[in-house]
Structure to design on (790 residues):
């Protein structure tokens, strides 16, 4: 009987354990799915027309926005922010770029005031500001200024010393457990370091010798003991030796490692020195896909766990080991080379061309051998001695998913063996979230909304003496002009406000104000849409490696090109503007030139604007509009606008306007609701120039010049076919022959691009960056020469 009772108890315990394991596993997967659903993440790539520039040249760029885990184009954010940062993270240039269908393009003119140096091109969206700044796109660009002296060399006292970092596989070193330890070593300039290293104990016995395999990366196996002091000596191939230390060694803990078991299987090994009866959960995911979720048993500890590589998605897979309290204790990244990359080929009928000759390039793109429709950008420029190419494939699959600077990322996708790629995973481990944020459920702390229509302009009113009244009122944004914009939005209890605007381009005067009848003392400030935090991205020390004579030749050519083609270079593309007013349609409109021109506004309104009633009491005017629906005048004054600027004084300021400055008067003759605001009709006056024409701006209002969206420029590439300019003596000194950000291949995967060479001889590079609707990425390169005509 006792034996039977014991057996039943054991079976019941096993069932409860199984049920509990299922609940826990489901909880992790469910929370993981919820997090991804509620925290959609964008990722960006920027293709620039080249990698190095002269001050005075133009940077042309194409922006691609994709969903972070699938690399598929995403049409969420309609605005992207692009910044050029110097070595001190100061923004020297900034722009707001319109995005459509996940694509956008723009330019920066590099002013002659810039000094030579390395710069960072940084790009992000408003939605991306909710997450780590390391997720922003970063790209190094080199700029030379031949008209300014190079910056002084960095004093030796500020040059960093060689350094090495150690990364235990899984995360921690545990006493008595064998760990694979990866390392990354760099020299004083941040470049990969070649060296020989050794670990010795307190008796000076050498325990391990090691050296890097590629790009300063390598690994070794080591069984640490927490009661022993270890010394690590690093002897560079050139330079003085230095010492380093291992990461902290824990007395108790768990170690997880992953090895290939043949070509198709991964073997996960778990070591533990805590001798516990229960173990945690191994959770494996590739992007959004949950690959594996299992409670670890004693058998798993003894024999390991096998997972087929076929189950893994392309790119990075995360292996996370949780303890019984659902705390992540070990994590490992594994990379599976994508098998669906785009093959991009670029061909021409010849390899050499004369100056001012037509060049036709034939683009062919396939995915797994089949033609595919894609969106691609193309640049053709004179080959440079300074190249740090950044392609879309290595960016979206590697550099955007790993922390820190990766040397030659494209090499890992083209030539690297799996062992080399695995070292990269061990030394740059990272993920796009914190497990604590996932397991505790939605936090609701996302501060920044996606800009799905136009710019979001936000700010705060502070110093108000009537906070309670102000919190229940509104703030007003006016963008005067012939096609003005007017917005209202409520003020929060903390004084914050947000305007959701439509597209507006170029530098505009904007006016923000609260209703002075509620509060006229509050100070209004607007927040910059640009981020003031910076990532771990570090620029290398600038060295002028450009051949002096070539640099001078290129500079002279650039100056000649700018001088003689200024009109072409400044040509802006056409921008479509929404001319619809916020109230959509007026009930009655008056073009004042069609009527007798009276000298006073009071006479205009009394003589023929019958929808407006004027009452004058104690020298103050009060206006009312006639409600079409109720057939009577409304009780309060209407919203009075002049070129989009509201006048909150019941009509007194309007009566002071010279009617000769007013072109049009429109009336909404009924109550009108705009957000939380309800207006007793609208009286909308527009001047001839849309510039307020002397209308006084209230002293309590914030008035400033605000940079709207960038109006793009057309890339200038002369076409010499049948053009008299073919015979002109005017030199054509373009070093960038062609730039086209928006191109497509049809279903046959083919496209043809044509342009003309310039008078600039030399070697030229063609670069194509391509993205397909299913997230396929590809880069193509080609070369040709331009020689003078015989």
């Amino acid at each position: 009987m006792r034996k039977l009772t014991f057996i039943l108890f054991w079976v019941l315990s096993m069932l409860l354990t199984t049920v509990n394991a299922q609940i826990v596993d489901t909880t992790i997967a469910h929370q993981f799915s919820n997090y991804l659903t509620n925290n959609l993440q964008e990722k960006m790539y920027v293709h620039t027309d080249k990698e190095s520039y002269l001050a005075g040249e133009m940077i042309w760029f194409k922006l691609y926005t994709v969903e972070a885990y699938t690399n598929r184009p995403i049409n969420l954010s309609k605005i992207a922010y692009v910044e050029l940062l110097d070595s001190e993270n100061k923004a020297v240039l900034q722009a707001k770029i319109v995005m459509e269908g996940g694509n956008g393009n723009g330019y920066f003119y590099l002013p002659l005031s810039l000094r030579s140096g390395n710069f960072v091109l940084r790009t992000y969206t408003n939605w991306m500001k909710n997450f780590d700044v390391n997720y922003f796109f970063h790209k190094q660009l080199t700029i030379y200024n031949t008209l300014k002296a190079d910056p002084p060399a960095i004093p030796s006292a500020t040059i960093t010393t060689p350094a090495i970092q150690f990364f235990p596989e899984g995360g921690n070193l545990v006493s008595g457990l064998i760990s694979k330890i990866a390392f990354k070593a760099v020299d004083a300039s941040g470049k990969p370091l070649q060296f020989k290293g050794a670990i010795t104990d307190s008796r000076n016995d050498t325990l391990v010798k090691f050296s890097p395999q590629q790009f300063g990366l390598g690994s070794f196996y080591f069984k640490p003991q927490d009661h022993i002091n270890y010394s690590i000596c690093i002897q560079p191939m050139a330079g003085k030796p230095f010492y380093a230390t291992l990461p902290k060694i824990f007395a108790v803990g768990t170690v997880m490692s992953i090895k290939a078991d043949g070509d198709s299987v991964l073997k996960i090994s778990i070591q533990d020195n805590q001798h516990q009866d229960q173990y945690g959960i191994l959770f494996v995911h590739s992007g959004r896909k949950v690959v594996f979720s299992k409670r670890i048993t004693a058998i798993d500890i003894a024999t390991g766990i096998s997972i087929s590589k076929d189950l893994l998605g392309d790119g990075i897979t995360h292996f996370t080991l949780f303890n019984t309290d659902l705390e992540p204790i070990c994590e490992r990244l594994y990379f599976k080379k994508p098998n669906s990359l785009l093959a991009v080929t670029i061909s021409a009928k010849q390899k050499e061309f004369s100056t001012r000759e037509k060049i036709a390039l034939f683009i062919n793109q396939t995915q797994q051998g089949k033609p595919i429709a894609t969106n691609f950008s193309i640049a053709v420029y004179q080959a440079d001695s300074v190249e740090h190419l950044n392609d879309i494939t290595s960016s979206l699959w590697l550099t955007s998913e790993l922390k820190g600077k990766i040397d030659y990322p494209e090499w890992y996708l083209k030539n690297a063996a799996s062992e080399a790629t695995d070292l990269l995973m061990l030394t740059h481990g990272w993920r796009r979230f914190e497990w604590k944020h996932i397991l505790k459920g939605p936090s609701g702390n996302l501060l920044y909304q996606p800009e799905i229509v136009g710019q979001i302009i936000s700010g705060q009113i502070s110093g108000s003496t009537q906070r309670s009244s102000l919190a229940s009122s509104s703030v007003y944004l006016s963008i005067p002009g012939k096609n003005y914009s007017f917005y209202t939005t409520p003020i929060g209890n903390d004084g914050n406000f947000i305007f959701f605007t439509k597209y507006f381009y170029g530098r505009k005067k904007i006016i923000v104000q609260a209703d002075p009848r509620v509060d006229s003392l509050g100070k209004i400030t607007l927040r910059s849409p640009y981020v003031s935090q910076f990532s771990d991205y570090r620029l290398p020390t600038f060295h002028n490696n450009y051949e002096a004579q070539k640099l001078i030749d290129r500079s002279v050519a650039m100056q000649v090109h700018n001088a003689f083609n200024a009109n072409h270079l400044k040509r802006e593309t056409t921008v479509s503007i929404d001319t619809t007013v916020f109230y959509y349609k007026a009930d009655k409109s008056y073009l004042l030139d069609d009527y007798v021109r009276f000298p006073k506004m009071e006479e205009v309104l009394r003589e023929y604007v019958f929808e407006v009633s004027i009452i004058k009491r104690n020298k103050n005017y009060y206006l009312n509009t006639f409600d079409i629906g109720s057939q009577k005048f409304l009780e309060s004054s209407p919203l009075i606008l002049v070129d989009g600027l509201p006048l909150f004084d019941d009509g007194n300021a309007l009566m002071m306007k010279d009617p000769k400055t007013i072109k049009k008067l429109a009336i909404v003759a009924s109550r009108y609701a705009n957000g939380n605001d309800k207006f007793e009709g609208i009286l909308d006056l527009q001047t001839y120039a849309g510039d307020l024409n002397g209308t006084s701006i209230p002293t309590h209002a914030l008035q400033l010049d605000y940079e709207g969206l960038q109006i793009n420029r057309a890339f200038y590439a002369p076409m010499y076919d049948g053009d008299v300019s073919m015979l002109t003596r005017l030199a054509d000194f373009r070093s960038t022959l062609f730039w086209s950000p928006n191109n497509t291949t049809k279903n046959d995967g083919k496209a043809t691009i044509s342009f003309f060479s310039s008078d600039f001889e030399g070697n030229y590079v063609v670069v194509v960056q391509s993205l397909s609707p299913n997230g396929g990425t590809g880069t193509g390169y080609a070369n040709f020469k331009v020689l003078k005509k015989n």
